[in-house]
């Protein structure tokens, strides 16, 4: 089990109504309307847990990449992570599967893969999912995303 030596920060969120409810967090103020994806029979007119997990995992992974970058002396400036979280039936319940695609401009894909694999060892989300969730890590040449650096 991975347990922090001390807590540096805690996030608190309150949800009501499940996948078709509302969620909020304070400091800073975040309020979200939740909705089951249309592919799963819902309206799709709101945020869903898989989107939030993908955002959280991608951001956390990229943060851990800074540590791996220093350790391996592989640059990560301008890096991007595309986190894809899929959900589907598993027995009488559901399970998720994650794919993390990583790119770093002007760094060879082989080096990016090495950086991504080390990052996967360090990232708190990766530690939390290890042994429980199928996570694929893949270096790619480019991520077309519409996000400005």
From TrEMBL:
<dbReference type="InterPro" id="IPR015946">
    <property type="entry name" value="KH_dom-like_a/b"/>
</dbReference>
<dbReference type="InterPro" id="IPR003718">
    <property type="entry name" value="OsmC/Ohr_fam"/>
</dbReference>
<dbReference type="InterPro" id="IPR019953">
    <property type="entry name" value="OHR"/>
</dbReference>
<dbReference type="InterPro" id="IPR036102">
    <property type="entry name" value="OsmC/Ohrsf"/>
</dbReference>
<dbReference type="Pfam" id="PF02566">
    <property type="entry name" value="OsmC"/>
</dbReference>
<protein>
    <submittedName>
        <fullName>Peroxiredoxin, Ohr subfamily</fullName>
    </submittedName>
</protein>
<comment type="similarity">
    <text>Belongs to the OsmC/Ohr family.</text>
</comment>
<dbReference type="GO" id="GO:0006979">
    <property type="term" value="P:response to oxidative stress"/>
</dbReference>
């Amino acid at each position: 089990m991975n347990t922090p030596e001390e807590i540096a920060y805690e996030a608190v969120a309150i949800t009501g109504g499940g996948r078709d409810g509302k969620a909020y967090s304070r400091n800073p103020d975040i309020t979200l309307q939740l909705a089951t994806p249309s592919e799963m029979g819902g309206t799709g007119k709101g945020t869903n847990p898989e989107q939030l997990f993908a955002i959280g995992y991608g951001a956390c992974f990229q943060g851990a990449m800074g540590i791996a970058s220093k350790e391996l002396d592989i640059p990560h400036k301008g890096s991007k992570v595309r986190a894809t979280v899929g959900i589907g039936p598993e027995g009488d319940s559901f399970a998720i599967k994650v794919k993390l695609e990583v790119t770093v401009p002007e760094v060879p894909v082989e080096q990016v893969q090495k950086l991504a694999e080390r990052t996967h060892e360090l990232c708190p989300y990766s530690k939390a999912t290890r042994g429980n969730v199928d996570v694929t890590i893949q270096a790619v040449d480019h991520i077309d995303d519409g996000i400005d650096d």
